[in-house]
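Researcher: Re-running this chain for the archive, since the previous output was lost when a drive failed. Same request as before.
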Amino acid sequence: MSKPSETVNSAQLYARLLRYVLPYWRMFAVSIFAMMIVAATEPAFPALLKPMLDGSFVERDNFALRWIPLLLIGLFVVRGIATYTSAYTINWVSSRVVMDLRQAMFERLVDLPTRFFDHTSSGSLIANVAFNVTQVTSAATSVVTVLVRDTLTIAGLLTWMFYINWKLSFIALATAPFIILLARTVSGRLRSMSRATQNSMGNITHVLEESIECQKVVKIFGGQAYEKQRFFEAVNWNRRYTMKQLSASAASVPIVELIAASALALIVYIATRESGSGGTTVGGFVSFITAMLMLFPPLKRLTSVNENLQRGLAAAENVFALLDEEAERDPATRAIGRAEGRLKFDNVSLHYEQSERAALHNISIDIAAGETIALVGASGSGKTSLVNLVPRFYSPSAGQILLDDIDIASLRLVDLRKNIALVSQDVVLFNDTIAGNIAYGPLRQASDEAIIAAAEAAHAMEFIQELPAGLHTFIGENGMRLSGGQRQRLAIARALLKDAPILILDEATSALDTASERHVQAALERLMQGRTTIVIAHRLSTIEHADRIVVMHKGTIAEIGTHAELLARDGMYAQLYRIQFAAERAGLAPLSDA
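Model: Regenerated C-alpha cells:
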C-alpha cells in the first residue's frame, strides 16, 4: 500500500474514532479548555523570569521583588487546577469511549452469522474486545491531549522566544523539519509492529483459552509440555513485536534530543557573543534559554505520541473490521405465530464457502407435524449440516425448506426461531443460577411455577431441591458444578419451558452413566411428545421407536424407513446396527458415529 493511501486511511480511521468522542463533546471541550490554560502557563513562567531577574538583581525594583514571587505561586495554583481538570475529564471521556466500543463490538458479535465463527478463533475475538479497544482510546483521547496541550505550549514558548530574540528563535525552528522527517519515517514501522503485537495477543488468548477449556485432555494425554511450548512461542512472538515497536519509538527520542541540543549549543554560543555587545540582558538571556529548555518535554511528547497514535490506529483497524462485519442477514418480512410443525426439504443442497465438496446434495424429506425423524450415518455424512438449515444458521445453496408450506427464507428469523428448541450433545449453560439457565432470554419473564413445572418434567427438581439455594443456586462456568446428566436435564427443562413445536435433538445419552441416561431418556420422551422432532442419533438403540429413520451418506439420503423396515432391507442401517449391537454386547463403545 502506498503512503498517500495510508495517509488517507489514517485520516478516515481517526475521523471515525472521533465520532465516538462526539457524544461527550461537553466534557471533551472542558478538557480542551483546561489544556489550553495549562499550555498558557508554560510561556508565562519564562516571561516572569525576565522582569524578576532584571528587576531584582540588576535594577533592584521593589515591585519585582514583592509581587513576582506571588505571581509565580498563583501561576502554579492555576496550572495545578487546570491539570487536574484536564486529566479527569479526558479520562472520563476515554472510559466512556472504551465502554461504547466494547458494547458496540459485543452487540455486533451476537448478531454475526454462524459462518463467521467457523473461520474466526474465539481467542482473537476476546483479545479484540478486551485488549485492542483500550489501545484505540489512546489515539482517540490521549493523543488529542498531547497534540492540543503541547502544540499550544510550543506555540506560546516560540512566541515568547521570538519576542526576546527573533534571530535565535529561527535557529531553534530550523530543527523542526528534521523532527518531522523522523516522525514520518518511524510511523510506518510503528503501525506494522503494533498490528503484529495485537494479532499476537489474539494468539496468546487462543492458546490460553484452549488450555483452560481442555485441561482434562491436556492432563490425561500428557500434553503439558506441548501446551507450555505453544504458550511460550505465542508470548515470545508478542515480546519480539513489542520490542521492535519500543525500539523504533525509543530510537526517535534521543535523536530528537540530539537535534535540539545541537540547536541549543549554537544558540548559547551566539547569545554569549551578543551579550558582550549589549544585545540582550541577563534576564532576557535566562528567559530565552528557559523557554527553549521548556520546549524539549513537549517536543519529546509530540515525537513519542506517534507511537500511541500508530498503536491506536492499528487497533482501530481490528476493532472496525469487526464492527464492519455484516450482521446475520434477515431480509424476510413475513411473520408467523405458533407453527403446526410441518417441515419439507425440497431438493436442498448446501455448499460451504471454503469447502470443495457439497455438504448436502438434493435432500428431499416431508416431515409431518408431531413426527419424529432420526438422522443416522457416519461422521461427515451431513446430519448436522441438515439440521443447521432449519433455524437458518446456514442457507441452502439450492432448493428450499418449507415450514407449514411457507418457505422459511421468507420468515423473519425471530419468528422462525421462536418455533424451534434445541438440545445439543454439548450442553451450553451460563454462569448464572439454575432458574436463569432454564428461563433464558425472553423466557426470563417466566414465573417460578412455570420454571419448576419445566424442571419437574425434565426430572431435574430432584437434584435441584438438594442444592443450597435451589433454583437460585449459581452453577459456575458452563455448569461445572453439576454432573453431565444434571446439565443435560437443565437443557431439556429449558426446551420444555420454551414449548416450541419443532425440536432438534443431538442425543447425548451415550456419554452418560446408566442412572443418568434413564432420567435423561425419560425427560426426552416427555419433551418430544406432540412436537416435530429431528434427532441426530449416535446410539441406534435410542431411536428404534422413531417414526422414520433417515440414513445419510456423503450428503445424500441412502435409506429411509422405520427401524423394522430398514433392518429387513439389510442395507447400510442394518450393517451399522449389527456393528453397534456387537460392540455393546462386548461392552465397548460404538464403532461408528452413527
